Amino acid sequence: MPVSADQGHDPVITILHSDDRPKHLDGPNVRFVTDETLTAALPGTEVLLVWDFTSTAVRDAWPAADALRWVHTASAGVDRLTFPALLDSDVVLTNSRGVFDVPMAEYVTGLVIAMAKDLAGTLDAQSRREWRHRESERVGGRTAVVVGSGPIGRATAAMLTAVGMTVELVGRRAGEGVHAISALPGLLPRAEWLVLAAPLTESTRGMLDAAAIRLLPPRARVVNVGRGALVVQDDLVAALREGHLAGAALDVFEREPLPADSPLWGLPGVIVSPHMSGDILGWRDELEALFVANLDRFRAGEPLENVVDKTLGFVTSGELASPPTRTGSAR
Predict the structure, then answer these.
(1) Where are the alpha helices (DSSP H) in the chain?
(2) Per CATH, is 13-98+281-315 categorized as 3.40.50.720?
(3) What are the domain boundaries of the chain?
(4) Which residue is catalytic, options 256, 302, 326, 331?
(5) Locate the D-isomer specific 2-hydroxyacid dehydrogenase NAD-binding domain: which residues (predicted)?
(6) What is the pLDDT of residues 110-142, one digit of tens each?
(7) What is the pLDDT of residues 235-281, one digit of tens each?
(8) Could you tell me the pTM of the whole model?
C-alpha cells in the first residue's frame, strides 16, 4: 500500500500526524508533519491527509496553502475542518466514512447490554469479593431512539434491532424508516435509550440540552458516540445528579481528554470511555487502504468518494466530486 509515482502526475502529499503516524504511506513527494511544522509544509502541497483527526492546526495553517486541491480526514466527523476559509474554497473535503460503522454499532450495543445487565455493579461487587444477587433489565422489547441516519446510525439501529429492541431512527430529513429531526421531541418521551450518532453541525450542536432531557423518561439512558458538543454537558450532569436520567455512556466530550476534575468520572450510572468506540484492531490499516484507494482516483483524475457536502457538514449518499485543477488554489 505504499504511495509511489505512476505515469501521471504524482502530487505532493502532506500527512499531519501526532505520535501515531501511518506505517505504509511513504514516497518522495510525501511530507510527514506535526501541528508545529504544518504551516511550513503547506506551500506546494496538493493533498493533505489529516491523520491526527483531533488536531485543529489546519485552520491556523490554512493561509499557507497555495496549491491544495484535496483534504482527507482519518475520521467520520469533519467538524474540526469546517472552518470558513476551507468551506469557501474549491478544495474537496473527504472523510473516512465506512471504516467505523460496524465497530461503533458493536460498541453501542455492548454498552446497552452492559448497562441493562449492570455489569459495572457485578465488577464492583467482585472487586470486594461480595456475593450480591440482584435482578437486571431486559434489552429486548425496549425502545431506543438513534439520532443520526448515516452509516454509523443505521448500523447501530440494525444491531439494536437484532437484539430485540424497537428502534426509532432520526435523521435530518424524513425517509423510509427515518424520522425527521423535527419529530425528535415527540419521540423522546418513550425513549428508554437515546443514542447520539449524529455529525456535529450548527443544527445539532447542543441538541441534548435541559429542555430535551426533560422530555426523556427518568428510566432513560443516554449513549453518545457522535461528538461531545451534541450534548450540553452541564445540563446532562445536572439531570444525572437529580436522578432524572438512569445513566449515560459517553465516548465523546466537549473537551478531550476529559479533565480529571470532571464530575462525570464519579457519577453513579455513568460509563466514561476515551473516544474509542470505533477503534478496533486493524483500524489504521483500513484507514490507509481507504485513503490510498481515493488517491488512486485522484491521480487518475476520477471523482473522489466520501466527499463531504460542505454546506451540510457530512457526506450525502453517493456523493462524488472531482478535485479542482492543478492551477486551482485553496484561497
Answers:
(1) 38-41, 57-61, 84-87, 101-116, 119-127, 151-162, 184-187, 210-215, 233-241, 283-300
(2) yes
(3) 13-98+281-315, 101-272
(4) 256
(5) 110-277
(6) 999 999 999 999 999 999 999 999 999 999 999
(7) 999 999 999 999 999 999 999 999 999 999 999 999 999 999 999 99
(8) 0.92
